Amino acid sequence: MKNRILGLGLNLGELDFRNIDVAEFDSGVALIDYDIIIIDMNSIARQYLLELDYYENIQEFQGLKQVSENDSFRLVNDIKRRHKQISECLGYGKTIMVIPPDENQYSVHTGKREHSGTGRNRATTRIVESIKLTDIIPFKIKLDLKNFGEQIRIVKNTLFAPIFEKSVFSYSYNSFLEFEKLDNVLPLAYALATEKIVAVNIKISKGNLMVGPSLVDSDNYESLSTEKYRKVVNKFLNSLDDLHENLKANINDFHLPKWTEKYGILDEFKIRNVINSIDNQIEELQKARLKKLDELKEFEKYKLLLTATGEQLEKIVFKLLLDLGFEPKETEINRADGVFTFGNQDIVTEVKGVGKSATEKHVAQLEKWNSEFLETNGREAKGLLIINTFREKDISDRAIADDFPNQILPYAQKRDQCLLTTTQLLCLYIESIKNPDNKNLLITELLNTVGVYDKFRDYESYLEIL
Fold first, then answer.
1. Which residues share a beta bridge with 353?
2. Proportion of the chain in helix, strand, coil states, percent, rounded to 5
3. 284-315 pLDDT, tens digit each
């Protein structure tokens, strides 16, 4: 063997092998001393639940087996330690093979406690959290567990295929492997007659991380004699040794020193120039894209008029009124959602986002702001009640007739208030942008309205709809 191999938690029965060292997951063995590391995650659960006689008298929390308080700290620290070591090994170009666990998630104690009650009624609650054994892997992987099987379809023509093609091996997978992205992920085997992945190689830094079924677990070879089982294990180890050598010698995976860049072979410099030109185009396109994204965000802000409530809605209404030419007015008493002037007209606004229609209290609140303005300035202002009604519904599902119920209209009309929805205000704004010469006329009509503002009800004429 050209490479040193470590089996971490690997179940090889009672046999000793000259070509592999075996250690427990919680041991102090440094992974960096080895070129190839095999990790059987099922051994982890057995180790840290040993205090509870392995699956006997084990408590559960929210369906997860609970590790004892003492072993919780050991498990959490060992997972962090092994995660760091695995990352370092991959950075040095090691080959690591991980066998997924039958159960991945466990409940562990955090060491935190909460107390309630006093005296004899005092109770202590130990705080727990969940942890995944796959946290040792420096790559995001999801296990679709409790999918046990033995029949696989091997991906041909890869450096990894010989490991799975040995007829003497007994395959035993326990899960399907799922990934958000397949970047740097090479499927090696599928469940037979499916596209369900059961083995992969992940290229991480300079190393290779294989995740896949158990190939040499002694429990799968109980029918073999000791001598035959020993041959199976040795063939497996030889296959891994050859794989590691082939991976190191792979001419498609290499790193050249910086000085080689000053020498060109055939059309190399020409290709480099084309690549540089493409990179420059990509950079310019990215800049243009970011600029357009900023422009898009400015437009999308106005959609808050259709959805928002509270201070967020007040701010976007305030911005839109400024865009329309309203001038904000500073007063000592300015509890209203906005006090403005437009020409010689003073305006007080009440802005609300609600799940249903406008109510009497909204009209009464606007009158309160108007009264305060009158008391402070000695003159009345025009009251605008701007409401985002039925804000949680698609605007196509909002019933126009229900925005301002009939019972609030006499009160609003008596106080010279104008009632409109934020959707109407948005459409008025869009019209003023398209036809700026009409803006002053539109706003004058709005401020002269007493009761419900009846323009810009047809939003479909102003909003593009997919």
1. 388
2. 40, 25, 35
3. 999 999 999 999 999 999 999 999 999 999 99
Contact 191/175 with Cβ under 8 angstroms? no
Which two three-digit tokens encode residue 295? 């422009």
Structure tokens at 259: 């000085």
CA dist., res. 399 & res. 268, Å (int): 67
144-169 per-position pLDDT tens digit? 999 999 888 999 988 898 887 765 56
- As a dihedral over the C-alpha atoms of residue 27, residue 131, residue 199, residue 146, rounded to 10 degrees, the angle is 120
Q: How far apart are CA 54 and CA 32, in angstroms?
A: 30
Pairwise CA distance, residues 371 & 18, whole Å: 94
Q: Is 193 helix (H, G, I), strand (E, B) or coil?
A: coil
Predicted confidence band of residue 172 (pLDDT cuts 50, 70, 90): confident
User: Nearest 5°: phi and psi at 48?
Assistant: -85, -5
Q: What is the Cα–Cα distance from 66 to 51, expressed in whole angstroms? A: 12
C-alpha–C-alpha distance, residues 374 and 241, integer Å = 89
What pTM was computed for the model? Answer: 0.56
Average pLDDT, the chain: 88
Tell me whether strands 21-23 and 64-65 are parallel, antiparallel or unpaired: unpaired
Residues facing residue 347 across a β-bridge: 340, 382
Question: What pLDDT score was predicted for residue 168?
Answer: 59
Buried b (16+ CB within 10 A) or exposed e, 9-27: bbbbeeeeeeebbbbebbe
Residue pointed to by tokens 């126009």: 400
pLDDT, one tens digit per residue, over 322-371 is 999 999 987 555 466 789 999 999 999 999 999 999 999 999 999 999 99
Beta bridge pairs of residue 358: none
Confidence class for position 85, pLDDT limits 50, 70, 90: very high
For residue 253, how many C-alpha atoms fall within 13 Å in the half-sphere facing its CB? 15
Burial class (CB in 10 A: 0-12, 13-18, 19+), 435: exposed
The tokens describing 330, both together, are: 């500073």
Residue 214 makes CB contacts below 8 A (sequence gap 6+) with: 40, 99, 171, 172, 173, 220
- Residue 340's closest CA among 388, 387, 381, 386? 381
